[in-house]
Write a structure and sequence with these properties.
Chain A is an all-alpha fold. Chain A has one domain (57-329): Orthogonal Bundle (ABC transporter involved in vitamin B12 uptake, BtuC). Chain A has helices at residues 11-29, 31-49, 56-81, 89-105, 110-134, 139-158, 168-175, 183-201, 203-213, 215-220, 225-251, 262-272, 284-303, 308-329; strands at residues 163-164, 177-178, 181-182, 253-254. In chain A, the strands form two sheets. A two-stranded antiparallel sheet of chain A has the order 1-4. In chain B, the strands form five sheets. In chain B, strands 6-9-10-3-11-12 form a six-stranded mixed beta sheet, with helices on both faces. In chain B, strands 18-19-20-15-21-22 form a six-stranded mixed beta sheet, sandwiched between helices. In chain B, strands 2-1-4-5 form a four-stranded antiparallel beta sheet, covered by helices on one side. Chain B has three domains: 4-241, Rossmann fold (3-Layer(aba) Sandwich), CATH 3.40.50; 242-338 and 453-511, Rossmann fold (3-Layer(aba) Sandwich), CATH 3.40.50; 349-420, no CATH class. In chain B, α14 (355-364) packs across α15, α14 runs parallel beside α16 (405-418) and α16 (405-418) packs parallel to α17 (435-450). Chain B is globular and about 70 Å long. Chain B has 19 helices and 22 strands. The chains are: A mainly alpha (330), B alpha/beta (511).
């Protein structure tokens, strides 16, 4: 073709092509843009496949479904950026829903019950942080241990079975809405804004990126690595605690079996969102998109009547896909 | 038949565009011990790795017993009877001594490993070297010297025809070195050719039959030991170009000499660290105090213990006359210290972060954990350092890994300037950057010292050390051996002092 003199591109053609080209480049240049496109394509395909998909009620459902896992994923993003991992988050969700339920039922009042719940969450964070940061034990192993440990304590506290509880305000958190937006979504967005701000504009956020990037340089540069890493696990546990309160608010019960497998769901969303497993890299906007994509895929399958067991398979495939993409990107 | 065991012809090898070997040609005869001598980065280790087939050469030929070997790899090399002792040990820490010795050819009986025979064979090999190491002990339980000795036994267990040894004596004690030499002589009498790399001149002169000197990836001289005096070796190693480079910048030295004041910034008293004995010195305001020592001499241990990276066994550090309690880098920074390491990538910089963040992170630690980053101030600060230190980057937001090595190093120095450190410890600050950038960085170091800071400096290049430092302390086996003031500077004397030798006569080499 290049031998044909008639096929040479004129300057007019080049100019005409350029805007399209640059739009295409913009959309494919950054990983976040690619994720956004994937999100839109997914919505289009699912709308075509199912008449019930593209409705306001369904979108509300999807977002409501992402609130709990989204809050955990934001925390997990921070943990992964610090070059760590936290597998105990699902258990912390159950633990906190149980503490809230039991203390409310014991008549301690809302304020004290919430405070106890946060104390519970932060003690798990301190426990993880102490072993990981001070004793320098592999975070995977430590949080695998605390995953079982915390779950066990949740069962011991509540005695095995879920228990209902009553609280107007908690109920509102789970099912109420603020100017037409469901409260859990408002809470999730608030958490997102706070964590994103913290990571971008505070000394702490930059230290987390620095530690994830190169822990030894961080130490030699005078960053208090031990303290920062403990704080990372405390923030993670605190967010898992908020997620636990939200879950209890949506179900009106303290459920010791709640949150099973949430660590995997959160990791899927975070890795799909472009956060590096090697640390030092990652953005909360990506995690939000990752959470949305996972929720869309699962919701779409519900809409299409795909049996649960097949959904498990597809979730697994998303993780494998996300990991492969993550490895190829770097 | 020809007596040549190994011949390499015009071997070239580059890493990321930098030529480590620029066409080396060497001949090794059977039954000969050849000393391969050269300063750091001359290409000695690279050459051994190419011969062993661990690195593929870009071009050039390798002949073993007169036969040309194409595409050599470690398996082929072993089959040809080439054994290597790497500079950095490659033993499996959680396997036993005998398992490590016979890692790739464990004796078998009915298809399973015959542990009894393996342990017996290992014991007899260890006995041959008169070593008292339990062959059933795990490598991780052994001391550094014992590990090195096991490495030597392992290399010899294969009855090598060509034995390559990359600084085998660095971690050894005197007695063990003598036993190693005995073993080398035995191998030599069996017709094995032994290639021996050491920075210790004494050893090379004692054991080797022939000496080959390489510099900047090319071979400079080779010949029988009797043709070499210590002076000639040192001169060939450092090279004429190196000398002229130094001469060229002598004027800078002379002008910066005046900045040293009598005021003591830092005083180390009887510092004892692992590998370091009773090191005492004073660092003055405006002074660049150079430390010279061979690998493993303890210079780095001294530096790291002052910065709180290595635990001090005893001894005191005084900063501006007051006793300083430094147990970690945060303490050190609070006392006004800064640290530039020899390995930028592994502990000097945040590769994926911006120039601005790399410069401003230490200073930001003064604020509360969750306080906001003072972005405007940081942008102004980093811009002024980019300008002042002439860091070549389009913007302070550029990710630091996209800068050249010299500019990355300047940004690392800038972070201590932003923090206003009074004392900066510099461990090989010019490692891994090109010659022009080296001069630039060294000039910068002299300038920041002249502003009233104190610099502890070390470099493995003596010419560079002489060029930059106002005073040089040589460390030999963890102790201060000799101090040189600028007027006493002599390249060869300093090199001899690093080797623990006062005068050349001690070497016992006829001129």
């Amino acid at each position: 073709m290049s031998n044909n003199p008639n096929s040479t591109t004129t300057s007019e053609e080049l100019v005409a092509k350029k805007p399209l080209n640059s739009l295409f480049q913009l959309l494919t240049s950054s990983y976040l843009a690619k994720l956004s496109i994937a999100c839109v394509v997914l919505i289009m395909v699912l709308s075509y496949l199912s008449p019930y998909f593209f409705t306001i009620t369904n979108f509300k459902d999807i977002l409501l479904g992402t609130a709990v896992i989204g809050i955990i994923s934001f925390g997990m993003t921070v943990v992964l950026i610090s070059d760590g991992i936290d597998l105990s988050v699902g258990s912390v969700v159950a633990f906190c829903s149980v503490i809230l339920c039991v203390s409310l039922n014991a008549g301690l009042g809302l304020t004290i019950s919430l405070m106890l719940t946060f104390v519970g969450a932060i003690s798990v964070g301190l426990f993880n942080g102490f072993f990981i940061s001070v004793l320098k034990i592999n975070p995977f192993i430590i949080t695998l241990g605390s995953m079982s440990l915390v779950r066990g304590i949740a069962y011991i506290i509540i005695g095995g079975q879920p228990q209902p509880f009553e609280s107007e305000i908690i109920r509102f958190m789970g099912t109420g809405s603020i100017v037409g937006i469901p409260a859990p979504i408002v809470i999730m967005i608030a958490v997102l804004v706070i964590i994103a701000f913290m990571m971008k504009y505070t000394q702490f956020g930059r230290n987390v990126y620095a530690i994830g990037n190169n822990q030894e340089t961080a130490r030699l540069s005078g960053i208090n690595v031990v303290k920062t890493r403990i704080l990372v696990y405390c923030i993670m546990a605190l967010l898992a605690g908020i997620a636990g309160i939200l879950l209890a608010a949506q179900t009106y019960a303290g459920i010791p079996a709640a949150g099973n497998g949430y660590e995997l769901d959160a990791l899927t969303a975070v890795i799909l969102g472009g956060t590096s497993l090697k640390g030092g890299e990652g953005r909360l906007a990506g995690t939000l998109l990752g959470t949305l994509i996972v929720a869309l895929v699962l919701n779409g399958q519900n809409m299409l009547g795909v049996p649960y067991f097949y959904q498990l398979v597809s979730k697994g495939l998303i993780i494998v896909f996300a990991m492969t993409v993550a490895m190829k990107r770097t | 038949m020809d007596n040549t065991a190994l011949r390499i012809n015009n071997v070239v090898k580059s890493f990321d565009g930098t030529k480590a070997l620029k066409g080396i040609s060497l001949n090794f005869n059977k039954g000969e011990i050849i000393g391969l001598v050269g300063s750091n980065g001359a290409g000695k280790s690279t050459l051994l790795n190419v011969i062993y087939g661990a690195y593929a050469p870009d071009s050039g030929e390798i002949f073993v017993n007169g036969e040309k070997i194409n595409n050599i790899n470690p398996q082929k090399a072993q089959a040809l009877g080439i054994s290597i002792i790497f500079q950095h040990r490659r033993l499996m820490p959680y396997m036993t001594v005998s398992e490590n010795i016979f890692l790739d050819n464990m004796p078998k009986k009915y298809g399973i490993v015959d542990f009894k025979k393996m342990n017996e064979d290992a014991t007899s090999l260890l006995k041959m070297l008169e070593l008292n190491i339990d062959c059933k002990a795990l490598i991780s339980e052994l001391s550094a010297e014992e590990k090195q000795l096991v490495e030597i036994v392992k290399a010899c267990s294969k009855n090598p025809k060509i034995l390559l040894m990359d600084e085998p004596t660095t971690t050894l004690r005197q007695g063990d070195v003598e036993r190693l030499f005995k073993l080398m002589n035995k191998l030599k009498s069996q017709g094995c050719s032994v290639v021996f790399i050491s920075h210790r001149l004494k050893e090379v002169i004692e054991i080797c039959d022939k000496i080959s000197i390489i510099r900047d990836g090319s071979n400079i001289v080779e010949g029988d030991k009797k043709d070499f005096s210590a002076d000639r070796i040192i001169e060939s190693m450092s090279g004429i170009t190196d000398q002229t480079e130094f001469e060229h910048h002598k004027d800078i030295n002379d002008s910066s000499q005046t900045s040293v004041s009598d005021e003591v910034l830092l005083e180390a008293k009887n510092l004892n660290v692992a590998n370091v004995k009773n090191v005492t010195f004073k660092l003055h305001k405006g002074e660049i105090l150079g430390f010279a020592g061979l690998g493993g001499s303890g210079v780095e241990d001294v530096f790291e213990s002052i910065y709180g990276l290595k635990k001090r066994i005893s001894g005191e550090i005084e900063i501006e006359g007051k006793q300083a309690k430094i147990n970690n880098p945060i303490n050190a920074i609070n006392y006004g210290l800064g640290f530039v390491s020899d390995d930028r990538q592994s502990n000097g910089e945040f590769l994926e972060l911006s120039v601005k963040d790399n410069i401003c992170i230490p200073n930001g630690q003064k604020n509360k954990v969750f306080s906001l980053i003072k972005n405007n101030q940081e942008v102004l600060d980093s811009r002024s350092f980019i300008e002042k230190l002439n860091i070549k980057t389009e913007s302070e937001e550029k990710v630091i890994k996209n800068l050249s090595g010299g500019n990355q190093q300047k940004a690392i120095i800038a972070k201590w300037l932003q923090l206003n450190s009074k004392i900066i410890i510099m461990c090989e600050p010019t490692a891994g950057i090109d010659v022009a950038a080296k001069l630039d960085v060294n000039k910068l170091i002299q300038e920041i010292a002249a502003e009233g800071r104190g610099i502890l400096y070390t470099s493995s290049y003596i010419t560079e050390l002489m060029h930059v430092s106002d005073r040089i302390i040589t460390i030999y086996k963890g102790e201060i051996f000799k101090e040189f003031t600028r007027s006493e500077y002599d390249h060869n004397d300093i090199y001899l002092a690093m080797n623990g030798i006062h005068t050349e006569q001690e070497l016992g080499v006829a001129q």
